[in-house]
Amino acid sequence: MSAALLVLPDFLIIIFGWLLNRKLGFSREFFVSLEKLIYYVLFPALLFQSIVRVPISMSTAAELFFATAAVAACGIALSWLAWPILRAPSFTMASLAQCGYRFNTYIALALAPGLAGASGQAVMALIVGFAVPIVNLAAIYALARNQGVGFVGALLRNPLLVSTVLGLLFNLAGLQLPQFIDILFGKLGVAAIGLGILCVGASLTWEPGQTNFKLIAWMLTIKLAVLPICAWLICDRFALNALERQMLILFAAMPPATAAYVLTVRMGGDARAVSLLISIGTPLSALTLPIWLSLIS
Q1: What are the residue ranges of helices labelled H in the chain?
Q2: In the structure, what pLDDT confidence band is assigned to residue 208 with cuts at 50, 70 and 90?
Q3: Domain with 134 in it: what CATH number?
């Protein structure tokens, strides 16, 4: 399957989500409730089950973990480099910086099976599991520091972080889910991906206001162009197999996470600027993702 056709179904769902919200009478309040369901229930179940299912040992997973951490660290450093260069207000910077290094895991987990089957989705889930604590720590710390919110409390209330840590501990302890729980989480996970992508489309909006477009352009350049190159170079430094290289570069090429908007709203950041960045970056990734998919496949 060509790279363009691989991403087409998911971007059609994004368009459908936009149509449901803007043209077909499904209110924004409906999608806000749906986002809460995905954020607090469906996606944590998907992350937990996916991580538990992947055979993990400290020796085999160490290289992938350090490579994922290096990609996340590059994204964080390059995003915050905009602060001294563009001199953005700290309120806006704390909100938008996360869009340079947080990844749309809904799209990543949807594309991985099309590129490399079930094994691709398993590796992608492991990368997500490694990356989520790192990028969430960075995003929550910046917003909590800027808004005066308790950092530890914000971490403990983050369902993606909690489910990821529990999944890793469960896996490393050699435990297995009972079959009926595994089936239940599997069904919740399937719903998470489809509904998550639908909510991506519903969240797209255009409210420029007084937004710093230079800062938005900086974050999108980092996220869609520079960070995948960094991931490619990082893969050369670690002993990753071909499948792990593919999935890590694909992960780095993802558009900004819609969860960044949810977190910004929850913590009182500049939600309008984050929404606008995601609304520009997600359609733009429809052009950049096929390029990266062609290169890695």
Answers
A1: 3-22, 28-37, 43-53, 58-80, 82-86, 90-96, 105-147, 151-156, 159-172, 179-203, 213-221, 227-235, 242-252, 259-266, 271-296
A2: low
A3: 1.20.1530.20
